Amino acid sequence: MDLNGTPLEVADIAGIQAALFTGRVTARQLVDAYLDRIEAFDHAGPELNAVVTINPAARDQADALDDAYRRTGQAVGPLHGIPMVIKDCLETADMPTSFGSEIFADYRAEEDATVVAGLRAAGAIILAKTTLPDWATSWFSYSSRTGVTKNPYDLDRDPGGSSSGTGAAIAAGYATVGLGTDCGGSVRLPASFCNLVGVRSTPGLISRTGCNPLVSAQDTIGPMARSVEDAARVFTVMAGFDHSDPLTYAYSVARAPASYLDSLVPDALQGRRIGVLRSAFGADSDANAAPVNQVMAGALDELRAGGATLVDVTIDDLSGWIGRTSLYTIKSKHDINSWLSSKPDPPARTVAQIIDSGRYHKKLDLLEALAAGPDDPLNDVDYYTAYTAREAFMKTVVNLMESNSLDALVYPTCQVAPPTHEDTDSGLWNTLNFPTNTVIGSQTWMPSMTVPAGLTDSGLPVGMEVLARPYDEPTMFAVGYGFEQVIGHRSHPRSVPMSA
């Protein structure tokens, strides 16, 4: 499908809606075109295996939106007619929600997650739900529900986790934009590996109601998109106070703007001072890190070309800070157990029951590790040690920025390129040793965004992460957008050709 010279697979929200509102296309035609791509490429052709469930009501929802626009001449909301895919840990009343778990394959929630309800109210069409590892517990796509998902840029490689399916699906042009969830980096890592923009907010700007927890105070939900502008459009709809999620007090603390699109100005990098966090780069002598560093060198030149002043900075003992502030094996079992026990009739009520059943993917080392955690972290001194270390880590990073008058920090989203399935199967990389830098933003509870930085010589995507101060999402969006405007690094993967 062609939208005024732009193929649907790379079209943005503004372009699609321009076509919708001038009658060149209907929402029903959009849904049909995207569903055709899913049929052609997900379990046929390259067999990406990114989709768990197709929404059987998607065409009817598109028809209703088309009818409403014909009758009123008005959009239902800011995402009118935009087909989306969402990670299958966000509850939906009209489709099962599996959380990546075979045990929950037929589980159906009574109502939509808050963010899903908000997207529908804004006119979005939830086209399908996407793959993830069981309970979002891996950097890779291993799932007892769906197996493994392929990276459309190299079918022998992983798309990253835990929002694996959303990353692969949006890169492949299965929908306009998608949602993932992010505790340690589960939006940003697959966005980086799939040449996308991925956004993690300050915790609490977006409601988590209707989404399974991993570390409750650290969990976020965020957009994954082919452009910063599309991510900002969806983020604006998602952000807000929710009486059912007390952490959303943060929305009022942030004094959030009416629209994050206001931050997207052409000269957004002019006059910015940006810190290059050198301690987050792998060694040039490391064959896995060197290709990423080469791409990042070019990205830093582009930041300068856009008008930014770059300042090299370091955080002493960065790996130590990351280790000391990790809460997964201390807090996650309690949070998942509490959430499961709140459900009226779940197929399992505890992590122990999931592990004892044997019905989980055996490559999920983190799921097994957190199962050994304390039943009540408040009775474990390690919880208090890690929690206070998190506050100290955040202060260290913010003070570093203040001392150098920096607007943001940048570094590679991950120190290595997308790993092969062979490497993850062999155990070369596992959840506990994988060198992703996404945990910096996660474990300081600071907003961060990955943007496409370029491709390695072998054609593998590399993401650059932008880290801003707590509640300063406007600066994060501005820097990401400014970089994108210098030289856009989005390119469509060859494994899933664009339609004629």
SSE layout and pairing:
Layout: E1 2-3, E2 6-7, H1 13-21, H2 27-41, E3 51-54, H3 58-72, E4 83-87, H4 114-121, E5 125-130, H5 164-172, E6 177-182, H6 188-193, E7 197-200, E8 220-225, H7 228-238, H8 249-253, E9 273-277, H9 290-305, E10 309-313, H10 318-324, H11 328-341, H12 351-357, H13 365-371, H14 381-403, E11 408-412, H15 421-426, H16 438-444, E12 448-455, E13 461-467, H17 473-486
Written description of the protein model:
The protein is built from 17 helices and 13 strands. It has helices at 13-21, 27-41, 58-72, 114-121, 164-172, 188-193, 228-238, 249-253, 290-305, 318-324, 328-341, 351-357, 365-371, 381-403, 421-426, 438-444, 473-486; strands at residues 2-3, 6-7, 51-54, 83-87, 125-130, 177-182, 197-200, 220-225, 273-277, 309-313, 408-412, 448-455, 461-467. Helices cover 36% and strands 13% of the residues. The radius of gyration is 21 Å and the shape is globular. An 11-stranded mixed beta sheet has the order 3-5-4-6-8-7-12-13-11-9-10, sandwiched between helices. The protein has a two-stranded antiparallel ribbon with strand order 1-2. The chain is α/β, with parallel strands linked by helices and 500 residues long. α2 packs antiparallel against α3 and α11 packs across α13.
Task: Please give a handful of descriptors for the protein shown.
two-stranded antiparallel sheet, 500 residues, alpha/beta, single chain
- Report the end-to-end length measured between terminal Cα atoms: 7 Å
Q: Please compute the radius of gyration using only Cα atoms.
A: 21 Å
Looking across the biggest beta sheet, what order are the strands in? 3-5-4-6-8-7-12-13-11-9-10
Q: What sequence of helices (H) and strands (E) makes up the elements?
A: EEHHEHEHEHEHEEHHEHEHHHHHEHHEEH
Helix-and-strand structural type: alpha/beta
Poorly predicted regions are: none
Any idea what the shape is?
globular
Question: What's the tally of helices?
Answer: 17
Determine the strand fraction and express it as a percent band: 5-15%
Helix content: 25-40%
How many DSSP E strands? 13
- Largest sheet data: 11 strands, mixed
Mean pLDDT: 97
